[in-house]
Amino acid sequence: MAVIKPSITTVAFDVITQSPSLILRLRKSLDLCSAQQTVYLSDGKAKSRIDSSMQLIHALKWSFLSEIASKAIQPIVFVILARLLTPEDYGIVAAASMVISFSQIFWEAGTSKALIQYQGDRNEAANAAFWINITLGILVSSALLALSNLISENIFHDPRVELVIDVLTLQVMLSALTSVHIALLQKDMQFKHLFWVRLVTVAIPAIISIPLAWHGKGYWALISGTLVGQLMQVLIIWQISYWKPVVGIDINIVKQLSNFGGWVATTGLLSWFYIWADSLIIGLYLGSHELGLYRTGNAIVTMIYGCIFGPLMPVLYSHFSEIQTDRERVRTTLFKVIQIITFLSIPMAVFLFTNASFISNALFSEKWKGIELVISVMALMHGYSWIIGANGEAYRAVGAPANETITMSLTLVFYIVGYFLSIQHGLQAFIWTRLALALAACGAHLWVAKRVVNLNIIPTVTYVAKISLVCLPLVAIAHALQWSNIASYETKNILIDIILLFISLWAVERRGLIQTTLTLVAKRHLK
């Protein structure tokens, strides 16, 4: 019989990821443990579960620090570059990045996700994945160089895009050299190592791009920073990684990785259309200037949400893969994750929507006129889209990536039709249509989660509706205060929004997530 001391991190993880009934049992257990300070386990499985929870929280801490560090640098760099460059500069880079991102689907082929999920010989699997990526990277790079002229002239109608695509082709091979190493670090939950890699490779592009932009190099400042940062990532990853490739591959493992990776790659292709199809259509119909406005405004919102929720995804996938055989545990974990994301993402969306004018005036100059609308509507779109952000990680972890692929295929049809119809009426109509389509897609993904992991839809929708009803009326209140001149300055509006959101959320969740968090903090101090 093993004896271990109770850990607040273990309890915190279970509160986040387990069902309410289990939370209640854990609270009672904690009360008993406060006197004895020991927990007796009768089998190794329970101990393994706590060890798994501890490992997850440790990984989540470093993953979160990685995102915080990178996002602390990126907004500063972004603001400086936005004042030195034009929407057109960003539009040209966005067009080329769109193509490079599309190519990643074919050279990466889902092997990284397959490697993380693979339960056999890790070294043999890693070696197979590495040589698959290198081979496909060479083929894809050659295709990009051959087609760059055709793409720039017939799709983006801008000859400057051709040379940018040619130069950024180097990024394909640099990424192929590190994708397997990064997947192995994620599989082992070695996010502490990834933290330092992310920190260095985010800081170095800033050192390169800002001086070049200051000296009038335009979009080449962005490109140079990207390539130097990618090169540094290769050097650091190969230095710290314990694994190195060897010549030769196991054909059977290649087949296994390809079967799983094929679905992941197909999902990646569909994800590309979700991420880039809107930009592609804007660039095709409206030009580089509007594309720069849209991509940059969307990037601001993406950075904000990515800083909060980005660290969760790689850690959740690794954890879901670890508990994939326990479907009930996967279900309860996913439900609790959705609750926490909803509690944070919808209030953030409302706050950004009501204060988009202040953000655009603070960050951008007059040449960026029109970006306020993009920021405000995209804030709502991302806020609700993130509610189902962890669903795909759960599907892939339990070995059912096809479900996400099929769902995205069906909903993508409506996205494309909506994009083409709305773009005929200009950028404003397009942006609002983008929001409406995202809301409809959330419902489809919740239905799929019900089928795959038996997620309870009614409690999930009820919780989303509750938080929405609390937050959305604050939009009208904030505007009413502004119109009545009670808050004459935008900074006062921001303060009022924060206070109103805090009071409303406290009133709704004081006996839910907030009470649970405070209980944990209190127990930790008492201990």
Q: Could you please describe the fold and organization of this structure?
A:
The chain folds into two domains: 41 residues, no CATH class; 425 residues, no CATH class. Helices cover 83% and strands 1% of the residues. A two-stranded antiparallel sheet has the order 1-2. Helix 3 runs antiparallel to helix 13, helix 7 runs parallel beside helix 10 and helix 13 packs parallel to helix 17. The N terminus and C terminus are likely disordered.
Average pLDDT figure: 75
How many domains is the backbone divided into?
Answer: 2
Query: Can you write the helix and strand succession as a string?
Result: EHHEHHHHHHHHHHHHHHHHHHHHH
Low-confidence stretches: 1-51, 520-527
Separation, N- and C-terminal Cα atoms: 24 Å
Count of DSSP strands: 2
